[in-house]
Design a protein that fits this description.
This protein has one domain. Helices cover 56% and strands 0% of the residues. The chain contains three helices and no strands. Helix 2 runs antiparallel to helix 3. The structure holds zinc ion. Zinc ion binds next to loops.
Length: 111
């Protein structure tokens, strides 16, 4: 889990896993682990949509009933809150899935 939170390589725990926001590097920059066969599919997206979506909707209702702000406040607030949280959670979830694939299905990664 600490390796997933830091988005690091599943083998050495030092090289960065992503080459940009959500795209996995072809190989670890430190130990050279081949990451081209990593395939987590939509596994990182679905839980983030379900969990974060539910939390944001509940918070939006709470803010609406508690403070009754104008609609533009909701539009600005929830985009500003949801976007970075979604990206952070998708990175951590994707890193966790890559680590699980490395540990339990390493034959698919050619190891
Ligand atoms: Zn590595």
């Amino acid at each position: 889990m600490p390796t997933a939170l830091r988005c690091k390589c599943p083998r050495c725990g030092e090289g960065t896993l992503f080459k940009n926001l959500l795209e996995v590097r072809p190989a670890c920059e430190k130990c050279g682990l081949d990451l081209t066969k990593v395939d987590v599919g939509d596994g990182a997206v679905v839980p983030v949509i379900m969990v974060l979506g539910a939390i944001i909707v509940i918070l939006a209702f709470w803010v609406e009933f508690k403070y009754e702000p104008p609609l533009y406040v909701h539009a600005i607030l929830w985009v500003a809150v949801t976007t970075p949280l979604a990206i952070f959670l998708m990175r951590v979830t994707k890193a966790a899935l890559v680590i699980q694939q490395y540990r339990h299905r390493s034959s698919e990664m050619g190891l």
